[in-house]
Amino acid sequence: QAYMGNGLDFAANFGNYLSPVTRPANASRIFYAIMFDAGSTGTRIHVYTFIQKDPDGLPVLDNEMYSSEKPGLSAYADNPENAGYSLRKLLVVAKSTVPRVEWKRTPVVLRATAGLRRLPLAKALALLEEVQYVFDEYPFYVPADSVSIMDGTNEGIFAWVTMNFLTGNLRPNIKRTVGILDLGGGSTQITFLPKSKKTIKNVSADFIARFSMFNTTHELYTHSYSEKGIKAARIAALGASGSEGLEWKVYKTSCLPKNYEGEFQFGEFTYKVTGNPEGYTGYKACYQEMKKIVKGIIQQPNELKDGAVFFAFSYFFDHAVEADLIDENRGGAVQTRDFRKRAKEVCNKMSMFNPMKAFLCMDLTYITCLLKDGYGFKENTVLELIKKVNNVEASWALGAAINYFKYISLL
Ligand SMILES: O=c1ccn([C@@H]2O[C@H](COP(=O)(O)OP(=O)(O)O)[C@@H](O)[C@H]2O)c(=O)[nH]1
């Protein structure tokens, strides 16, 4: 076996032969990882190429290959055997990215988020079983816990790890870090390293997560709010939560153009919606509809009022692009008030806006409510909207890969 007995070889530390989750300690090694993000609205693959230059430090991320497929796994809840198609398409890309000689020691991992968390357990498990079945057809290394549902706390921590890794803040002596806001279809996450001890003292233990890195322990404030993702919020605002499966039902909202008739899909269901031809339409009425979803439910740590800067991505980014607040390629900084002002413009002139963007009023109003009435951000709180940092996708996936290789450990 060419890979055995060579002290410098990665496989000796990291092949199928020995523990798969000890990290490659030897000098300047290249290694790969395949991380699938099974989100509520899509399935995405990230193939990372790492170089271990300093045996005691974090690896350098040399490259990311990213690709995605819609819809998410949960759309196949009633016929899980069809869920494999999108995975196989993405795995083909993985095979062409990872050199053939590395296939059998390259781990393939899938973590599912809100889409599977919100399904009945039996349906979620059937989908995971299908994923496992597909993975086993491929030449990659499939570790024991290769396929699972990730809990929301880890989702928030890993997104924070990604952003701070990519911005060069993860060092033996952490000085400056960036907080993150992630808005998915099903859930939304906030994570930051508190500046004030009070922030930690004043919250219940389930808002605090500890992890260690370079022999130091850090405490993060983190929370994943389930059913507060942007698609789940639409459903809650329509009053459609819990009446799923009643396909004939039509839901009215003041957040859509008066004469609008349409539908949208989320998870395993389709929701029929219309505007409110006889009643109120527009920003004020819409704001009341969206506000009740977050008000008094989302925590407002005091520290957030002192002008913290957050990195915001996922649907925060996508809807800011849709609203022309930022350029899709460059991203950029906006303030809470920019979302509010644009929401008002769009909602009060709904007929003037692109009918392809019928939900823009609703989605921008929800984001405004989430930031202001949810987190308690001030009008001038700055959000750095980004999709990529140095060409790497802003998502929890990289942090999850870093955790997989034990560069950090969750306590
Ligand atoms: O690497 C990634 C992963 C996700 N996303 C975006 O992030 C959002 C995440 O939604 P998801 O379906 O994952 O929701 P969740 O399951 O977390 O609620 C979507 O806009 C994705 O396009 C992205 O741009 N890059």
Automatic annotation (TrEMBL):
An annotated Gene Ontology molecular function: ATP binding
PROSITE patterns per the UniProt record, alphabetical: GDA1_CD39_NTPASE
Sequence positions that bind ATP: 185-189
Needed cofactors: Ca(2+); Mg(2+)
Reaction(s) the record says it catalyses: GDP + H2O = GMP + phosphate + H(+); CDP + H2O = CMP + phosphate + H(+); ADP + H2O = AMP + phosphate + H(+); IDP + H2O = IMP + phosphate + H(+)
Pfam families membership: GDA1_CD39
Keywords: ATP-binding, Calcium, Disulfide bond, Endoplasmic reticulum, Glycoprotein, Hydrolase, Magnesium, Nucleotide-binding, Secreted, Signal
Active site: 155
The UniProt record lists the keyword Transmembrane helix: no
This enzyme's EC code(s): 3.6.1.6
Localisation per UniProt entry: Endoplasmic reticulum; Secreted
A cellular-component GO term for this protein: endoplasmic reticulum
Pathway recorded for this protein: Protein modification; protein glycosylation
UniProt record similarity statement: Belongs to the GDA1/CD39 NTPase family.
Protein's job: Hydrolyzes nucleoside diphosphates with a preference for GDP, IDP and UDP compared to ADP and CDP. In the lumen of the endoplasmic reticulum, hydrolyzes UDP that acts as an end-product feedback inhibitor of the UDP-Glc:glycoprotein glucosyltransferases. UMP can be transported back by an UDP-sugar antiporter to the cytosol where it is consumed to regenerate UDP-glucose. Therefore, it positively regulates protein reglucosylation by clearing UDP from the ER lumen and by promoting the regeneration of UDP-glucose.
Subunit structure and binding partners: Monomer; active form. Homodimer; disulfide-linked. Homodimers are enzymatically inactive.
Name of the featured protein: nucleoside diphosphate phosphatase
